[in-house]
Design a protein that fits this description.
This protein has 18 helices and no strands.
Length: 424
């Protein structure tokens, strides 16, 4: 296979840029920072985990509502980059702002976290849709997997810096409070995210689009309505989105709530940060491996493999007792989380009409985001009802089982011809 082009590399580098947010804000530092702030305010550990789950649900609901609408408008010539830039800018501003909110203001922390998540996830909608612009169908699996792989590897750099600052502050080696150290980590995330987004802004262009016309907003709503009416004509797309709705719910929930779960098990913050760092290192090459194996075994079979690993993760999580158990769980997650996300993205990109990529990735987003509401709520409610966080994680098994069953009915992209000129 020939080398990656400048446009492909510029697109791939955005995964390197925004993965700092995924690990530091979504997964590691912010959840621990929030739980410490909530605990100091008298909130129980179970309730703080539940509140974080509710907050994630609210943020994803906002994106689920906006995704298809904004995506449909962004299919017009020149709009995709503008929408991407808006959400990306929103994300880095509110991410950096987290550093300046007093720890005891835990409700305000959740509000700013919600806005930063909207910016992060909103930019990803248009970033994912750019995959159809930067490469060919034959290269999509490898390009998408390369993005996730480098994202996991690249995110370890700001993560190491953040961990070092926090651990040194905890050990009083450097004369700053742990809260201040966490704030520095939030600023580092925003700077890293911003700098490595520049190549995408400079080199990636919207090659597939709909020509601009009068009343673009009104016309966009008409096209969106037409898509809703005709979505059943795209049997493969519809079935895949339905399967994706369930299995990606479990994946996202485990990623975003893993540190809160580990904290509830009594694992120290330092151990959690180290485990998450190693998880990122391991996930990188495994993501790339998934992309290469998909060329031999097909993307669908590799999605099966990833889902089965996650079913094992949920079952194993129920019996967790020690830090070693959490290490084993983390490595199992690392082996598949990047691969399943990368191949889902490229699998869908092969099936969508390229001129309407934003609109269809809006649906991809709405299915993924509505799923992300259900997962955290399921964990939150189950944890509060049973009084045990491990029961909440175990409840996610049903989502993966439903997802893999539906996926079995989804044809490979080559097996079903998709009319790429339809829905204009």
């Amino acid at each position: 296979m020939k080398k990656f082009t400048k446009e492909e590399n510029s697109w791939i580098l955005y995964d390197w840029a925004n993965s700092a947010y995924s690990i530091i804000i979504s997964t590691a530092v912010f959840p621990l920072f929030f739980k410490a702030a909530a605990t100091s305010a008298g909130v129980s550990s179970v309730d703080s985990t539940a509140y974080l789950g509710y907050t994630i649900a609210i943020a994803t609901f906002i994106l689920a509502m906006l995704g298809p609408i904004l995506g449909t408008i962004a299919d017009y010539e020149g709009y995709k980059k503008k929408f991407f830039t808006f959400f990306f800018t929103l994300g880095i501003i509110f991410t950096a702002s987290l550093a300046f909110i007093p720890g005891e203001q835990w409700i305000l922390l959740l509000i700013f976290y919600t806005v930063s998540t909207v910016g992060f996830a909103g930019a990803n909608v248009f970033y994912d849709a750019f995959l159809t612009d930067v490469t060919t169908e034959e290269r999509m699996d490898r390009v998408s997997a390369r993005g996730y792989g480098l994202g996991y590897i690249g995110s370890t750099i700001p993560f190491i810096i953040a961990i070092a600052i926090i651990v040194l502050a905890q050990s009083q080696v450097i004369p700053i409070a742990v809260d201040t150290a966490s704030g520095i980590a939030f600023v580092i995330t925003a700077i890293w995210w911003g700098i490595f987004t520049i190549p995408l802004l400079k080199h990636v262009k919207q090659h597939y689009f709909i020509k601009r016309e009068k009343n673009p907003v009104a016309k966009s709503f008409k096209r969106l309505g037409k898509t809703f009416k005709e979505i059943r004509k795209y049997r493969a797309l519809f079935l895949f989105l339905l399967a994706y709705f369930f299995y990606i719910d479990g994946v996202g929930t485990i990623i975003t709530m893993s540190t809160a779960y580990g904290s509830d098990l009594g694992i120290t913050s330092t151990n959690l940060l180290i485990i998450l760092f190693v998880t990122q290192v391991v996930a990188g090459p495994f993501s790339i491996l998934y992309g290469r194996l998909s060329e031999k075994f097909t993307g669908k079979k590799m999605l099966y493999a990833g889902i089965m690993v996650y079913i094992g993760v949920c079952i194993y999580a129920y019996f967790l007792e020690t830090t070693l158990d959490f290490w084993i769980l983390a490595m199992l997650v690392a082996s598949s989380q990047g691969g399943i996300q990368a191949l889902s993205r490229s699998y869908f990109a092969k099936m969508v009409p390229k001129k309407n990529a934003n609109e269809f990735f809006g649906f991809y987003n709405i299915f993924g985001k509505f799923a992300s509401i259900m997962g955290p709520l399921l964990v939150a409610v189950t944890s509060q009802v049973t009084g045990q966080s491990n029961s909440g994680v175990f409840s996610l098994v049903i989502l993966f089982v439903i997802g893999i069953v539906i996926l079995a009915f989804v044809p490979e992209p080559k097996e079903e011809s998709v009319d790429r000129s339809a829905i204009i």
